[in-house]
Amino acid sequence: MFAQVIVESSQCLEPSFIAKYIDPILPYCELVNCLLTLGFLVVAIIGLKQISLARQAANLNATRDALKVSAEQCRHYANRIIPLADTLSSRRKEFSFFDCFSFSVKQSRILLEKNRDIKPADVQQLDTAYYSEFAPLFNEVESFCQYLTSGLADEKDAYLCLGDAFLSMISPYIPLLVLRAQEGHKWCNTLAIFVTWYNRQKRESIEREKHAISEKSDSLDKEKALYDSDGINVLDIDSFCKCKHTKR
């Protein structure tokens, strides 16, 4: 009986307690909750912005470092590789081995073609001088190309500086490099850069030819419009022949 009275009294007092003490502060609690949500949202947006800025700064630093390394490697190419290549260029003509092959590039493949049979004397002559004369140049070029294939140096920037010179310098040695690579997987960076730059140079040459043809076509169109505007009698051969055939 006593317990029942207590329970009933508490049930009677609870709504009045909530109405008196809890209800007045509910709007403030909702306001605080809303402000906290907005605060968390602002902090999250600022954090994402900082992450984006940090990523941009990292990319900028990486690009700057790559360009710096590229400039250093181009300087090394000019000071070290070009003198070696110039010295070996005249010496290379004494080796009949290089007359035995020609090559072509098909996408990512280098195809060798025999111009004549290789004589044992050709191979013996080349093997005698390979490590003392050719290998130093190839090692320097491989080291240079490794910076480009690994991304430590900017490959496209190096191509703008040295693309034509590199291709003309290394092209005569491609048959030898390919054969040596097939034996021991050497010079992979040199061959990778050669194929990349060779294909890029070929695409650029095609684009220049297309641009020249387009300019020539535009010039002819302008000349035709000029003749027509000056009142010169222009004979359209195709239309003239069609009319002749129709009359017959």
User: Percent helix among the residues?
Assistant: over 70%
Low-confidence stretches: 1-13
Which radius of gyration do the C-alpha atoms yield? 39 Å
Q: For the record, give the distance between the C-alpha atoms at the N and C termini, rounded to a whole number.
A: 129 Å
**Structural class by SSE content:** mainly alpha
- What is the residue-averaged pLDDT? 79
> In DSSP terms, counting alpha (H) and pi (I) runs of 4 or more, how many helices?
7
Q: Beta-sheet strand percentage?
A: under 5%
Strand order of the largest sheet: 1-2
Number of domains: 2
Order of helices and strands: HHEEHHHHH
Shape: elongated
Largest sheet: 2 strands, antiparallel
Give me the count of strands.
2
Account of the protein in words:
The protein is mainly alpha-helical. The protein has two domains: 55 residues; 144 residues, no CATH class. It is 80% helix and 5% strand. It is elongated. It starts with a helix and ends with a helix. The N terminus is likely disordered.
